[in-house]
């Protein structure tokens, strides 16, 4: 039992850290968000809600500049102010924003927040064990290597969640009569904006799949759906 104590402590620490992060995120979102009131986007959200037999899909605007959408641990969906500025400037369509909402709704519907909590606590335990073992054989560099390996694991798990949310969004967009073209064009634009920001990190450390891969998988799903 004593041998397992460090691992159990690492799991408990990871769980508490995740809960604290979720609590801090909720407070920040509560303080810096308001309901989305763009009529075109709200109308599309209503179409998606009807496709899911839901009374509504509530979307909030997170008052920050970076371009992003997010699903909070408590299930709420947010679009950033930066994204809305792109919409108002005519650089993003209402349908493309709807595809972002559909993707974040996928994270909620598929329980990714709960899964991330489990993944996070597990990764923390893996890091502690790997760090202790590797540090015996590679002093000073063991902790660095353990961190690199657990970061790669976390990125891989995150990419899995992104692919699942993409598939959910594609199915919802088709069911709501919006189609997947806005989803694909939104990814292309995100790729252009990311390229303009600078160099890309190694693929195995990326928390999101490559744009080309995401579009290819959307088109592969479409091909299966239209087969007689």
TrEMBL record:
PANTHER family: METALLOENDOPEPTIDASE OMA1, METALLOENDOPEPTIDASE OMA1, MITOCHONDRIAL. The keyword Iron does not apply. GO terms for molecular function: metal ion binding; metalloendopeptidase activity. Its cofactor is Zn(2+). This is Putative metalloprotease. The keyword Transport does not apply. Belongs to the peptidase M48 family. GO terms for biological process: proteolysis involved in protein catabolic process. Keywords: Hydrolase, Membrane, Metal-binding, Metalloprotease, Protease, Transmembrane, Transmembrane helix, Zinc. Binds 1 zinc ion per subunit. InterPro entries: Mito/Outer_Membr_Metalloprot (IPR051156), Peptidase_M48 (IPR001915).
